[in-house]
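Let us work through a complete example step by step.
Step 1: write down the sequence.
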Amino acid sequence: MGNQLTLAVAGSRKTQGIIEHCASLPTDRRVLVLTYTQANQEELRSRLQRYAGDHHHIEVMGWFTFLLRDFAHPFLPFKFPGQRVLGFNFDGRPWITARGKSRFLDSNGAVYACELGRLAHELVTNSNGALLRRLECIYDEILVDEIQDMSSHDWEIFDVLLRSSIDIRMVGDIRQSVLATNPRSKKNAKYSYANSNSWFREREAEGLLEIRDSAVTWRCHPDIAAFSDSIFDPSWRFPATHSKNETVTEHDGVHLVATKHVIEYVDQYKPQCLRHSVSSGKKFDLDFLNIKVSKGMTYERVLIVPTEPIKKFISLGAYLEPTPASSFYVAVTRAKQSVAIVLDSPGRSTLPYWKPQRVLLD
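Step 2: predict the structure and record it as tokens.
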């Protein structure tokens, strides 16, 4: 099948595409499905059971679990003879001057999460090819959901996998690059978050990867889809999103809402309220979700408390930096029918203002 990457817009049924692909495979094909977040792992397991329950050689695994089980656990002695992995330290970090074993393992023998990618990649070399040969014996195909969440040494590991006999199939949306497996690492920083697009294009140019675009959203109303396309600077050259959402309600599209009307808006439309952080929405006593937490979720309507850069984007047309643009894109594209953005000074924006009926009648 070869190595493939599908770059899909929000609401394009990326995860369902993985499920349907798995269901279409021969039942004896050995497949590993990888993703970063636990929520996405549970979603994949649930759907695979429903659509491909008779495929007994498909396994869903988290990225860190994959690196622990198939890299660190069996091959650590190739780098540190006599040593074993005795746990996983998600939050800890080694001393900045740490060298050798203490760079990767804490005093209890647990692997530091922030160093696991580096350790896994070095074990590929330390094992003199045994690690990769073992992977090739275990898996015919590896599928990766939300590929844009990868970072740091992960890209080195994917360079190895793309050159293996295993078929690698990846799905993601670089416009939703708000999470990272190792956000504090400087390794491969030029490929961090939305800049992972450069890594993909370089591998495409090498002939290691076939890239496909999927620009159809089944979630977002056409006006929301069009607005989401405007968030990134045109130099990114993303394809225009085509909406298949044909639902019409009494309140669709993207609107601005003045601060003084927010409570009435929320009472009338019951949107999910989104904010960048606790400090962003502290003036409102509403049931907020932070935008990063909302990634992967779908709501009928959302209300967004914008950051200062988002306010400048709307009122002045000043394009956002890649990471803030991704965060705003995620917030906007959680909605099926309507997006409301809290803003008192519209500037040059042509977005319509929502006002309560009592105000319109005055």
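Step 3: interpret the result. The CA atoms of residues 158 and 168 lie 9 Å apart.
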